[in-house]
């Protein structure tokens, strides 16, 4: 009995010692750095107080996030950043996020500019892959250093409220994602050169401000989004009572030159104004084929609904269609809605279209019901038709009508949300 008791005590002692043992600190340095890279930088730095082994470990973490708002005294923030990037032990900075704000103590704006320049310069020399610079609006505009234009390891670039320097030479062979929000450009050539010198660029978003002329030349681009605060374009149209084919005809050449640039997109989002321009332009001359388009997200007025099959004819490989209908009853009236008809059957309805999603709520008017019958009766391989019903009022009656519509595709499911 005494032997068993001693054995239990020994096992208990060993177990207690194991529990007290710091197993995390015994992990290899690379694994510890990987763990710390998922924490905010201010939390990572606190680990330096854990033990001697942890004291300098944070300097090897490849991900940094510096926010001036976390420092009540901006001068302390700049001093901290300078010491961090001056350290020879920081050999690699894969991710860097900078948030700069002068704050309430009126720190010297030139000092923040100097820090931004020196910190990005240092990061580009340390195999920088992902850069996110967020400058909060104040009395000074921060300029990105020219060293960024030749960072060969950069994969992702996100800039907010900064100034781009005049681009003499640009080489960004690894950049795949670029988001430019409220960015100031010294000239149109800088933007053009920045985009054209990214041979593997896949996603480009420009919002807020933009150059006077947005010229995008890219063979690798997959996703393009441009949303400007102000746009003084060549195409200036007033939609409504004064809109007619003559308005489009006067800009015919401009539209003709524009269309080839988007003819190879795979995923297109168009609003009701753009859809209206396309519909009127098609009366002047045929639209180009969108052979590569597999997904279309379109917002259109009920008055333009009759032109939808014509547009779908230009999308022979379309697989997914998302529609939002602007119920403009006041402009078209019930008689015109009753006259809307769909006669042609595009190739995509017979060979590729698998999903139709009506984002706007179905009210049960004549045009909407004709559209639903059209897709259900004409789509040969349709798998899912998704729609939303306004359940107050005639929602139940609409649902019963849908159930009675014959479906050409035997695998089609109607999903009501």
Automatic annotation (TrEMBL):
Domain of life per record: Eukaryota
Disordered as annotated region, ranges: 1-21
Stretches assigned to the F-box domain: 21-57
Pfam hit, one: F-box
Cross-referenced InterPro entries: F-box-like_dom_sf, F-box_AtFBL13-like, F-box_dom, FBD, FBL13/AtMIF1-like, LRR_dom_sf, LRR_FXL15/At3g58940/PEG3-like
Official protein name in the record: F-box domain-containing protein
């Amino acid at each position: 009995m005494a032997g068993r008791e001693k054995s239990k005590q020994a096992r208990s002692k060993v177990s207690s010692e194991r529990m007290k043992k710091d197993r995390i600190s015994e992990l290899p340095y690379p694994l510890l750095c990987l763990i710390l890279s998922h924490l905010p930088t201010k939390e990572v730095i606190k680990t330096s107080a854990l033990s001697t082994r942890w004291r300098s470990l944070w300097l090897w973490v490849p991900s940094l996030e510096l926010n001036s708002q976390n420092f009540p005294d901006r001068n302390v923030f700049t001093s901290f950043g300078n010491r961090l990037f001056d350290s020879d032990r920081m050999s690699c900075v894969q991710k860097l996020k900078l948030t700069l704000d002068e704050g309430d103590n009126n720190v010297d704006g030139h000092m923040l500019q100097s820090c931004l320049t020196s910190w990005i310069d240092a990061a580009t020399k340390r195999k920088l892959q992902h850069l996110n610079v967020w400058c909060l609006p104040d009395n000074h505009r921060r300029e990105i250093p020219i060293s960024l234009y030749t960072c060969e390891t950069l994969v992702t670039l996100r800039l907010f409220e900064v100034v781009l320097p005049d681009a003499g030479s640009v080489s960004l062979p690894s950049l795949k994602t670029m988001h430019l929000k409220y960015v100031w450009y010294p000239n149109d050539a800088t933007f053009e050169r920045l985009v054209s010198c990214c041979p593997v660029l896949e996603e480009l978003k420009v919002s807020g401000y933009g150059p006077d002329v947005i010229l995008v030349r890219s063979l690798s681009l997959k996703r393009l989004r441009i949303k400007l605060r102000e746009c003084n374009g060549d195409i200036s149209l007033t939609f409504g009572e004064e809109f007619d084919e003559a308005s489009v005809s006067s800009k015919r050449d401009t539209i003709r030159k524009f269309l080839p640039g988007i003819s190879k997109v795979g995923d297109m989002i168009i609003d009701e104004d753009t859809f209206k321009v396309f519909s009127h332009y098609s009366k002047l001359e045929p639209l180009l084929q969108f052979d590569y388009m597999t997904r279309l997200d379109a917002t259109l007025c009920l008055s333009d609904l009759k032109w939808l099959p014509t547009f779908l004819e230009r999308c022979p490989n379309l697989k997914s269609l998302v529609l939002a209908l602007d119920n403009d009853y006041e402009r078209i009236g019930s008689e015109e809605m009753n006259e809307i008809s769909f006669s042609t059957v595009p190739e995509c309805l017979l060979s590729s279209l698998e999903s139709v999603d009506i984002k706007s709520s179905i009210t049960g008017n004549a045009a909407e019901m004709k559209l639903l019958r059209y897709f259900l009766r004409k789509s040969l391989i349709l798998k899912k038709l998704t729609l939303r019903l306004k359940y107050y009022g005639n929602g139940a009656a609409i649902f019963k009508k849908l159930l009675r519509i014959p479906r050409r595709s035997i695998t089609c499911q109607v999903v009501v949300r």
